[in-house]
Fold:
Amino acid sequence: MKKTLSIIGSLFLVAPLLVWAQATTTIESHGEMGVKSQIQQKRDELRQNIQQTRDTFKQNVLQKRDALKQELQGKKEELRTNIQTQKDEIKKTVADHRDEMQAKREELKAKMQAARDEMAKRREAFQEEMKQKREKFLEEAKKRKDELKKKLGQDRADKIESVFQEMVKKFETTLTRFNEYAQKIEDRIKKASDAGKDATTAQEKLTAARTKVDDAQKSLEDAKAKYNSVVTSGQDLKVSFDKVKGLVQGVSEKVRLAQQALVDAANSLKGIGASIEGGSTTNSTSTSATNATSSTTSPTSQ
Structure:
């Protein structure tokens, strides 16, 4: 009995403890579940925040990339537009310059053609005048021979006239070849000018050379006129023929200067790619004309 009461008493003592332990266990169980729930909730919130952050970052990146693409596309279009504008400006500048140069070439060509036409007219008139003088000189040959025959006799008269005529012929042949050579230079200049090249310098040198050729022709005609005057007048033949010889030497010098000017004009063609062959023509004709002066003979030495 006592043992039974002892056991019952013990149960009364232990029972509260068991109740308390069970209650504690229940509380702890409920507490753990609450923490886990909170942790899970926090994890879910964190995962959601991370996803939102990712989505936001991704959206920002996409927006910035699109903005950058648009900006680059805009700059690319602007650059393409600027390049095209510059190309158009360059083309226009080149076209304007080409048109300007073409206009200047046409103007220069017209001026040179006008100068050539004017020169041709003057030369035609000059050559006609020289032709008339040559014909007159030949027509007066018989009269000169008759006058010389009266003063010096038939043989000496024939020889003097023959020598002078031979000298005149050599000079005239030389000057004729000079004029032919000048025409070749003229043709080259015209061809170069028509091709758009600036032949102004060559034209100027040719004009100067032709002027010297004309001077030589005039000088020859003066010598012929003086010779004719000496023969047909009552002047002292020795003194007068010395004067004629001086004139003839002057013709020779002017022929030499004309030859040099023609060579200079021909050399100027090289600068426009229009060189001319046959330059030795001026040298050979000039030499033969120069030698002609040595044939001028005074009547007193016959």
